């Protein structure tokens, strides 16, 4: 059984130096032309989804398999990074990362719990899911 817990907002970030070099993209075409630190799962680069439902495979010289690696690549100026906003909120507040393409309302990432209990969920599983849902909603508000 799947229980939807929250929708987590996505953002594109880069270092201040990256912003000075490449500028802030105003169109989807300009965004697609930026070099990215790309998320690769199993060696396959994952697409970046745009608000209108289209997507593109970003180009770039760095492929990462974790959010932490994407953040480090962005901090180092190696490319823009498409990440959960809650992961980079402190960096955005501190100015070590800047939001790129802020006018775009990127689709949120669904966050769900998957369990095998069907409709009769044990109380302990329900309570854990309730707790995670509260915490995830707080993260979505960041």
UniProtKB/TrEMBL annotation:
The keyword Ubl conjugation does not apply. One of its GO terms (molecular function) is DNA binding. This is DNA-binding transcriptional LysR family regulator. InterPro entries: LysR-type_TF_proteobact-type, LysR_subst-bd. Residues 3-136 form the LysR substrate-binding domain. The keyword DNA-binding applies. Keywords: DNA-binding. Belongs to the LysR transcriptional regulatory family. It comes from the Bacteria.
